[in-house]
Amino acid sequence: MSAQTGAVRPSAAAESLTDEELARGLVAGDEDCLAAAYHRWSPLVHGLARRSLGDTKEAEDVTQEVFLGVWRGRRGFRPERGTIGGWIVGITRRTIADALSARTRHLHLVAAAGSSLALAEPAARKPETTLDRVLVLHELARLPAPQQRVLRLTYYEDLTQTQIARRTGWPLGTVKSHARRGLHQLRSRLQDDEQADHYT
Fold first, then answer.
1. For the chain, give me the number of helices (H) and strands (E)?
2. Is residue 24's pLDDT more than 90?
3. Which of 73, 98, 140, 172 has its CA 20 to 30 A from that of 37?
């Protein structure tokens, strides 16, 4: 089935089918019946998703997921258990629940990453600042180990470069070099991410 089901217009014959006839065709693998089901029930699915998620784009994604689920699970439909519309609504509710769970996991990840920095200034409690810190942590983890260590000791333990040299046993010039290269790479990667976000 095409992921662009919503763009496919069902035939007039499929549109005129009763719900029961449409369900039989769908179970049999008739893609025209799938297009008709999308045309008939996608406004309801999208409306339920938008009200639950509060986001139009997420609701569109959920709507596509629901009808992918309808197609893949069509052989599991049992007319004796209820109508095709009720079955689609059931898939919708499960898909919305999955989307909400994914959102919750994301928020927990952001909160955990933000709190791990243990920075006390009020700005750190702002969501956008926390997200920035998550991005910094992610990019920091991609640096070579020596550069990571110097930057973490500098910003998270508030050590001077002389103190870092004493703790690590590295020459002061080496510490300065790791700090300079690490900051340069970090700045470049964050700028690349910012530009990528601008064009998405």
1. 9, 0
2. yes
3. 98
